[in-house]
Amino acid sequence: MTTDSSQSHLLTDETVKHVAFLSRLELTPDEVSQSAHELSEIFKHIDRLKAVPTEGVLPLDHPTELVDHIREDEQSSTLSQEQVLQNSPATKDVYFDVPKVLGGTS
CATH number for the domain including 32? Predict the structure, then answer.
C-alpha cells in the first residue's frame, strides 16, 4: 500500500498476490488487477464510515428496533364447521378434499 493520504488504500498487485497466496487462491493477472481496484474501493468506503461521528451513539444489537406486539388473549366466537368448509376450494362430505400426495386422484 502507498502512504499518500489521498491514495492511502490503493492496493498494489503485489499485495493482492500475497493475500491471494495466503488465502490459497489462484488469480489470473486480470483478476489481480480487478481485485486490487475493488478492495481499494472497499477500504475507501471503510474510511468514510470511520469519519462518521459516533460519540454518544449507543451500539445496536439489531439493525432495526424489535418490539414485541403482545396483545391480550381474548375469547371470541369460533367458526362453525360449515363456515370453515366454505373457505375451502373443494370439500367431500364434512372434510377438506385435497389431492393425494403420492399420486393418483383425490
Answer: 1.10.20
